[in-house]
């Protein structure tokens, strides 16, 4: 009889101990997760704030002078938009492209404006020589943008002696 009483009391005594163990495990997991999150946030903040401090310090050249600061971008829209036609599988297709030139020096951009008819001619010839299928893909559009940038930079180098244009940007691109 004494054994039965002991067996009855043992499971009741073990039940609260198991419940406390689960609570301790849950609390431990929550604390570990909070520690991991706080370390992640702290590390991110540390590295990002370190980058801001590095950018804030002016770089010095060996002579003790500050390095030249990169000038703000200047954008020149080429208007009107370029419209080019294609003969694709027996059907007439069209492409309309609006372009902006990105430069850093207004004087170089003004020197290039004198040669705008040649620049527009080169771009029309470049656009009309493209394959319609390749232009329908994002990769084809990016390749065309890079070709246009190279063409404009080549013309600028030839005519003004400087690569005045940093990038050619498509502000509108329509294929029909």
Automatic annotation (TrEMBL):
<keyword id="KW-0812">Transmembrane</keyword>
<keyword id="KW-0997">Cell inner membrane</keyword>
<keyword id="KW-0966">Cell projection</keyword>
<keyword id="KW-1003">Cell membrane</keyword>
<dbReference type="GO" id="GO:0006935">
    <property type="term" value="P:chemotaxis"/>
</dbReference>
<keyword id="KW-1133">Transmembrane helix</keyword>
<keyword id="KW-0969">Cilium</keyword>
<protein>
    <recommendedName>
        <fullName>Flagellar protein FliL</fullName>
    </recommendedName>
</protein>
<keyword id="KW-0472">Membrane</keyword>
<keyword id="KW-0145">Chemotaxis</keyword>
<dbReference type="Pfam" id="PF03748">
    <property type="entry name" value="FliL"/>
</dbReference>
<comment type="similarity">
    <text>Belongs to the FliL family.</text>
</comment>
<dbReference type="GO" id="GO:0005886">
    <property type="term" value="C:plasma membrane"/>
</dbReference>
<comment type="function">
    <text>Controls the rotational direction of flagella during chemotaxis.</text>
</comment>
<keyword id="KW-0283">Flagellar rotation</keyword>
<feature type="transmembrane region" description="Helical">
    <location>
        <begin position="25"/>
        <end position="48"/>
    </location>
</feature>
<dbReference type="GO" id="GO:0009425">
    <property type="term" value="C:bacterial-type flagellum basal body"/>
</dbReference>
<keyword id="KW-0282">Flagellum</keyword>
<dbReference type="GO" id="GO:0071978">
    <property type="term" value="P:bacterial-type flagellum-dependent swarming motility"/>
</dbReference>
<dbReference type="InterPro" id="IPR005503">
    <property type="entry name" value="FliL"/>
</dbReference>
């Amino acid at each position: 009889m004494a054994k039965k009483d002991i067996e009855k009391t043992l499971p009741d005594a073990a039940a609260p101990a198991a419940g406390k163990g689960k609570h301790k495990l849950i609390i431990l997991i929550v604390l570990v997760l909070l520690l991991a999150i706080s370390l992640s946030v702290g590390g991110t903040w540390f590295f990002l704030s370190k980058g801001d401090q590095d950018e804030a310090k002016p770089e010095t050249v060996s002579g003790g002078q500050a390095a030249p600061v990169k000038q703000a971008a200047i954008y020149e829209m080429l208007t009107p938009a370029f419209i080019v036609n294609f003969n694709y599988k027996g059907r007439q297709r069209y492409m309309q492209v609006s372009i902006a030139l990105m430069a850093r020096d207004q004087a170089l951009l003004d020197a290039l404006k004198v040669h705008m008819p040649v620049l527009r001619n080169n771009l029309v010839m470049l656009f009309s020589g493209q394959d319609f299928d390749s232009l329908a893909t994002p990769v084809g559009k990016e390749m065309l943008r890079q070709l246009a940038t190279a063409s404009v930079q080549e013309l600028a180098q030839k005519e003004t002696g400087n690569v005045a244009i940093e990038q050619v940007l498509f502000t509108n691109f329509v294929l029909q």
